[in-house]
Amino acid sequence: MSKRLKSWLLGVSLFFVLLFILFRLIIFFWINPIVGKILKEAVSVYSDGLYQVEYDHLKIKPLEKTLYIENFQLTFDSTRIGKDTSFRKNVFVKASAKEIELAVDNVNEMIFHRYLDIRQLFLEAPQVSLYNYRDSITESSQEPFNAFQLIKDYFDSVHVQYINIEEAGLSTRNISGKPFRDFSLEHINASVINLVVDSGTVYRNFGYPKADQFTLIVKNPEYLLPDSLFHVSAGQVAFYPIQNTVVFNNFQLSPQYEKHQFAQATGFQRTWIQGDVTELKISGINLHQLMVDNMISVQRMAVNEANLHIYRDRSRKSGKHQERKLVKEALQTVNVPFYFDTITVANASVIYEEQVPPAEVPGEVSFRQIFASIYHTSNVKSLSQKIEADVQTYFMGKSLMTLKFDFPMDSPDNWHRITGRLDAMPLNTLNQMLEPTAFASVQSGEVHALNFVIEADDEKAVGKVNFEYSDLKVALLNQKKPEEDPTLKHKVGSLIANWFVIKANNPQQDQPLREGTIYYQRNKEASMFSFWSRALLSGIKVSVGMEKDPADASASKKSDEEKKGILKKLLKKKNK
């Protein structure tokens, strides 16, 4: 290669290097500031001076058609809002991002064709804070959401091929001090593929854009309930709007105190609850009804691998007296209308403990391997004529129990029916509950079958029990120094009188099966679960001979007199 050619090539190379450097300098000192100024002024003009944009660095890569912004901040003029009362019925936004990357494919044609094609939008660590100036939840001066309104002044259509958001945060701030509570979410990740915004798409999607794929994941969300006694958390919440599905993993309800400290902390009797769910999946969500009608409509909710632990300390005084609600009334207290077509529960367990003085340990009832299906659950009468539930579980982990619930939603007095069956099991399985709460122990006995029907309403429960058992023997536990507690002495004496008349078998030899009549007047301050269990117990007492049929007044009176006589004799012997 000749010297002249080498010099020419070197000169050309230097020229292009200098041209490239000049090009970068023009971009850095001229293009970047112009774009930055346009961005700031556009935001200010579009918001009538209410919003401002700031950032640390803005960088343009023309060959890649990419814009980078570092430490982006969007703020609003809170002083102006404080002076102008017309703004105080809205929600305002403050936002920031560690990094924004925007890649546009059609930079040259986007203005002329009014079409924006974004190849990629990446947001790192964006933080969005919503400042609420409204006095009520329903009060708002804004129109229903319409995504096309956000772009129509500049574009007829926007297509975003890929959106990626990492480690985002969302929080609310209640400025009005009215019925809102601040909350925050961190560790939000989202990805969207082929997002389209245009007038036709938005119209067909009730104001929202369309996407081929949308995934929103929140890691480790936490929330302290308003009474500050319970804490709700999850390992992860995944929302898939295209599939109309939400999945909660490792959902937990945690009390702020241990069970033995809970009543002491609250100052009165209150139920301690601890629960966890491995997976809670809600599918078939009607997003249109949720966004437009403010109604939760769901096709299916599946609860998998759940555990619920309940504890109540009866040694504490009761709280303020209030009437507990039955199923229909409890559902109707929810302010937001909702409808769940099917709810399924798979492999759940419930443990209930009750501390009854002077026992040192609580009595316990447990239900293991619960499988349930619940249909047409709603607080809207027109959407559900009757709520039905089928439940299968192992009572005390020993005996298969099947239950069917029917709750007609048009019943004026909350009438409902429960039908159940308990298969064979040893009766001493009940000692885990009886010994700490009734101071009695089953020495022997076998349940062959227990079938019952309960019909209940606001005032009472009635029904029938067929309790087939054999070789039932019960003994009372020795209490330490019962003479120091006259109440306990009377309680033990009453139990002796009651257990004394128990019949060992049902049916007895050459006799038909004794049918137990259920009759129980509802205590409206007790929970509905207590109402149902005590109603069933009233029929079991008749079956085993502890009580007479409540329909037979003379027999009931005779039974009471017999028990008083037994108790009198026993107490005389004790006094001697």
Fold and architecture overview:
The protein is of the alpha+beta class and 576 residues long. The chain has helices at residues 3-46, 78-83, 110-113, 199-204, 259-266, 287-292, 327-332, 431-438, 486-500, 528-544, 553-575; strands at 51-54, 57-61, 66-76, 91-104, 115-124, 127-132, 157-174, 184-198, 213-219, 222-224, 230-233, 236-240, 245-255, 272-285, 296-313, 338-355, 363-378, 386-395, 399-408, 416-422, 425-426, 440-456, 460-476, 515-521. The chain has a 24-stranded mixed β-sheet that branches. A hairpin with a 4-residue loop joins strand 12 (236-240) and strand 13 (245-255). Helix 9 (486-500) packs across helix 11 (553-575). It is elongated, with a radius of gyration of 35 Å. Mean pLDDT is 81; it is low at 15-23, 25-30, 480-499, 553-558 and 569-576.
Key features of this structure:
24-stranded mixed β-sheet; disordered C terminus; elongated; alpha+beta; 11 helices
- Mean pLDDT, rounded to whole units? 81
The structure class reads alpha+beta
Major sheet details: 24 strands, mixed
Please provide the count of β strands.
24
Approximately what portion of the residues adopt beta-strand conformation?
35-45%
Described by the principal axes of the CA atoms, the overall outline is elongated
- Unreliable stretches (pLDDT < 50, length at least 5) are 15-23, 25-30, 480-499, 553-558, 569-576
Rg computed from alpha carbons, rounded to a whole number of angstroms: 35 Å
The helix tally amounts to: 11
Helix fraction by DSSP (H/I, runs of at least 4): 10-25%
> In whole angstroms, how far apart are the ends?
133 Å
